[in-house]
Design brief:
homodimer, alpha+beta, 9 helices, elongated
Chain lengths: 249, 249
C-alpha cells in the first residue's frame, strides 16, 4: 500500500536523514533518492524479494520487522538477519553482482520506505565519501555476523537464548530487568537456529542456571550479572558488548 | 624470520600483483606498499595478532594456513576463517575502528608477506577506485559468512562435513573423486564448530549415507552426485555453488 500524503513525506525525510548512509550522500543524490522514495505498509509474510532476483528496490524499515533469510528446497529457513526500525534491507546488492543473495519477507507487519537501488549503486560508484559510508555499513554487518558465527560454534542453546535477552537490556550492567520480547518465540527460535523443542528445553535450562523467567512474551531477569556471567562464559566478549547491529544503519 | 633476497622480492611482487586489491591501487600507493613489504616464515601456532590489539600489519598468505579466531576466557576457540595462499588476513581493520576484531595464528607453517596497515588505510581514504575494491572484498567475505551461518543453522553435522569436502572438488559435477584433506581433521572439526566426538560420529553417518571414505587425510568420494544431493538438501544453494571464499582476494 503506497501512501504519499504530506505527513508521510515528512516522516520519510526524517527517517532517511537519521541514517548514516543518507547523511553521507551528496545533496543532489540524497534529494534524488528522497524524491523517488515511497512509503509502503506490508502485512506479515509479504515477500520483499527472493534470493537470486535482480533488485529493483532497497528498503528502510520504519516499524515492524523484516526477516532476511535463505530457504532450502524443502522449505527450511535460515534467518540471516532480523531487521528493525531505522535499518536498511537489501542495500548491499550493488556490491553483490546486483543479485539478491537472500530472500526477505515481513516477519511482523511493517511500514517501510522503498527506494530505487539504481540510485544507491550510482552513488557508490560516483561518490567517494558515500563509498566510505557503505564500507562502514558492510563492515558493521560483517562484524555482527562474526559474533553470530562465534555464538553458533561455542555457545550452548541456553547461552544463546540468554545472549539474545542480554542484547535487549541496553547495556544495563546489573540488577533486575523486565523485558517484553521484540517478536514471537518461534521467530526467535528460528533466528537462533533452533527447533521449537530445543528452544523450550533450553529456556528451562536457562531458568535453572540464572533464574530467568519467560512467560509468554514477558521476561524477568532477576539478576543481570548472574545472567551475563552464564552467557559470556561461552564468548570472547564480555557484557555489555559492542553490538554493531544496534547502531544506526 | 624476515627474508629480503632478490628472489624473494620477485615472489613478493608477483604474489601482490595477483590480488584484486593490489591491482586496484594507484601506481604510487602500490609501489609504496611493495617497498614496505616483508616476506616472513612463521611456525605453527605463531600468533599474528590478538583480538582487541591495534593493528600494525596486515598479511598476504603465500603458503600454509592462518586461522582467524575468537577465544573465550576458558580457551575455547571459534574459527571465523581459515585463510590460505593468495588471500589477505587482517586487511579489514581500517574499517573496524583500527582494532583487530579477531585473533590470528598460524594453523600450519606459513609463509606470509607482511604489509603496513597504515598504507592500506590511507589508500581507502584517498582513492575511490581502491575503496570500491575494498567494498567488493568485504562484501565477498560477508557473503561467505552468510553461507556459513546458513549451514550452521540448517545442516546436520554430516552434511556440513560433506559440504566441506564438496568445496575441495573444484566444481566437478559427478563421478568419482579422490581428495587429500587440506589440513588436519581436528582443525576441520574446530572450523565446523564440532567437538572431536561429534566429528567422528558424523563421518560415520556420512559414509553410511554417501559411501564417502575418510582414512587419515585421504578421502574417496565414489559418487559426487550422491554426495551433493545429500549435502545440498540442507542448503539454499545447489552444488557446484558459488564459493566467494575461493575467489582471489
Amino acid at each position: 500500500m503506497y501512501d504519499a500524503t504530506a505527513e508521510n513525506t515528512t516522516t520519510t525525510l526524517n527517517a532517511l536523514q537519521a541514517t548514516q548512509l543518507f547523511g553521507a550522500m551528496s545533496e543532489t543524490a540524497s534529494y534524488q533518492l528522497f524524491a523517488a522514495s515511497q512509503k509502503i505498509t506490508m502485512d506479515k509474510d509479504s515477500l520483499l524479494y527472493l534470493q537470486g532476483d535482480n533488485p529493483e528496490w532497497f528498503y528502510l524499515v520504519l516499524s515492524g520487522w523484516v526477516k532476511v533469510f535463505r530457504e532450502t528446497f524443502d522449505g527450511d529457513e535460515a534467518i540471516i538477519e532480523l531487521v528493525g526500525a531505522g535499518q536498511f534491507v537489501g542495500e548491499c546488492t550493488p556490491l553483490e553482482g546486483n543479485t539478491h543473495t537472500c530472500s526477505a519477507a515481513v516477519a511482523d507487519k511493517a511500514v517501510l520506505i522503498r527506494l530505487p537501488i539504481s540510485l544507491l549503486g550510482a552513488a557508490i560508484k560516483e561518490d567517494h565519501k558515500f563509498a566510505l559510508a557503505m564500507l562502514e555499513n558492510v563492515a558493521k554487518k560483517r562484524l555482527s555476523q562474526m559474533k553470530e558465527i562465534e555464538g553458533l560454534k561455542l555457545q550452548k542453546a541456553d547461552q544463546r537464548i540468554g545472549c539474545f535477552l542480554l542484547q535487549q537490556c541496553n547495556g544495563q550492567p546489573s540488577g533486575e530487568r523486565d523485558l517484553t520480547l521484540p517478536y514471537g518465540k518461534s521467530l526467535i527460535a528460528t533466528q537462533l537456529g533452533m527447533q521449537g523443542e530445543t528452544f523450550s528445553r533450553a529456556i528451562k535450562k536457562l531458568r535453572n542456571a540464572t533464574d530467568v523467567q519467560v512467560t509468554k512474551n514477558k521476561v524477568t531477569v532477576p539478576d543481570l550479572k548472574k545472567l551475563s556471567e552464564f552467557v559470556c562464559a561461552g564468548c570472547s566478549n564480555q557484557y555489555p558488548c559492542k553490538t554493531p547491529e544496534s547502531d544506526k544503519a
